[in-house]
DNA sequence: CTGAAAGCGCTTACAG
DNA sequence: CTGAAAGCGCTTACAG
């Protein structure tokens, strides 16, 4: 853009009658400047409508004020509102703290990919990842000292700050709920088991069984991939192998919907003969018929937590992983 | 991050045996450099794993390599996958052209809001907006020479480059389809009529009626707001005022679903007694029962088109508004 | 508490 | 076709 003539430190300094160094101090919150002079600077800034040039500031200070949000192309960014929602939560928190969000939707390959290069090139002050199938890149970046936050639980134990939903607890309570409704034979359709979330939800399902003293047979544990189609396929198979099936916990709402579709087409009523619980509380959980009983996770809060964790790191504050609670939302399907 | 010692022009210049100016020329694609020397520079870059410092580059050149994607907080960024999907399309195209996407989710207020300041401060080379209720800010920025692209059709005629789906054509063909299926009385549930998309879809609906020589009564035109609830509310009202209603075109899939829910609860079968067509081809269109006949728009392509239009502008190339075609997807509901 | 000065790593007229 | 030099607008030791 044809840059309007914006004032610089030089003119602020002149009208305030101080040096540029002092202007810089005031604008960066250095407490040591004499209050009177600081006020003069602020007045000049106000009067001239001055806005700091962040690029120049970045070059001089080494801090860009930019945080990358990295989304793997592989993820179903398209069609799944999850990622967009998390990202908007992140963005809002960062913005409140004077930082901006650089969105990178790209294949997050190995250490020599474009994303890796960008992140290593010092053009961002930190990066927020969504949990990946591999922690290699993340561990590498961490070693280089780049502040990182992972949304989702990392695979390895490398102490990388992360935020996540209480997947285990949510799945546990969903399964418990099915049992409390009288279900004797509860299957699970897992998400992509390469993700930690899917594993944790499976663990919650198993824990509920363990506590009730009934271990589910292998064939009740179906490896899905979070897609509507996989929900349908596994429901079909379950119908054949377990005619007495009376409960299903699906690792997300979409698979739950797929399963319900199959059950009803096969003449099994939901929740009459088979109860179904999903996970997410996506829009479809409310709009479908029967409406879906599901485990709600607060996706915006997840993004905000990720942003906060990044801020804390940049400020050198202490921080712990953040695990957000879930809530079982009971509707018609179970 | 503790910046690793990255090479600078100084060391590239030295190992290639040329001046820094020459390094700059080669890296910026200046054709005038002698091929041999250019090659020496490229070799040095390769050998040293050099990556240009974009911040320094930005300060010196005035170009930041950053494009803002501005999303109004008001929009249902949360829960509606539309915005995230468009944005990922934008991001991909920009990335291929060496630009990065800065995501701003914030209240896009008047000329003195934070977003306005940021965009005016020269920290981005351009901005992509989603169509707003008002064009004021956009017109203002345009006057300042900031390259802009609008996703959606602008309200005013200010010649701002935009990309949009063929809302008129999509609605027209949806309505025609209902008529061709024998519907005699077709209502419309519009989107938020403050949006140009909602108006255009209404126009398409009206045009189809005009051509068939039957103008719909006022009470068949219901002002919705794109929400599931408004779909339900208007369907309820229609049921009371028009017992002989046999077709509904809803301006998005969510409202269509709301309407179907109400119709079926009232004992009206879809499509048996009332046919319903939606708009978007969102995920729910496929997963619902009955599955939804709808107007598909290619949301990723919309984002990519917006990105391309921005690139064209930055390169000083000619460009025209881009209107993407829609496709009527026939499923069970009509 | 404050200022002069060097510097961040590129880009770009300008002169040749 | 090429290089020396000034400059982009901040930040930050350093010296006082």
Write the layout of secondary structure elements.
Two copies of one chain form a homodimer.
Chain A lengths: L8 H8 L3 H8 L7 H14 L5 H8 L4 E7 L8 H16 L3 E7 L7 H7 L5 E5 L5 H8 L4 E4 L10 E4 L1 H14 L5 E5 L5 H17 L8 E3 L4 H14 L5 E4 L2 H13 L9 E6 L2 H5 L5 E4 L2 H16 L7 E3 L2 E3 L5
Parallel strand pairs in A: 1-2, 1-3, 3-4, 4-5, 5-11, 6-7, 6-8, 8-9, 9-10
Antiparallel strand pairs in A: 10-12
Helix pairs in contact in A: 1-2, 1-3, 2-3, 5-13, 8-9, 10-11
Chain A binds a DNA duplex (16 and 16 nucleotides) through α2 and α4.
Task: Provide an overview of this structure.
2 copies of one chain form a homodimer. Chain A has 334 residues and is an alpha/beta fold. Chain A has 3 domains: 44 residues, 434 Repressor (Amino-terminal Domain) (Orthogonal Bundle); 124 residues, Rossmann fold; 130 residues, 3-Layer(aba) Sandwich (Rossmann fold). Chain A contains 13 helices and 12 strands. In chain A, the strands form 2 sheets. A 6-stranded parallel sheet of chain A has the order 2-1-3-4-5-11, sandwiched between helices. A 6-stranded mixed sheet of chain A has the order 7-6-8-9-10-12, with helices on both faces. In chain A, strand 9, helix 12 and strand 10 form a beta-alpha-beta unit. The radius of gyration of chain A is 26 Å and the shape is elongated. At the A-B interface, helix 4, strand 1, helix 5, strand 2 and helix 6 of A face helix 4, strand 1, helix 5, strand 2 and helix 6 of B. Chain A binds a DNA duplex (16 and 16 nucleotides) through helix 2 and helix 4.
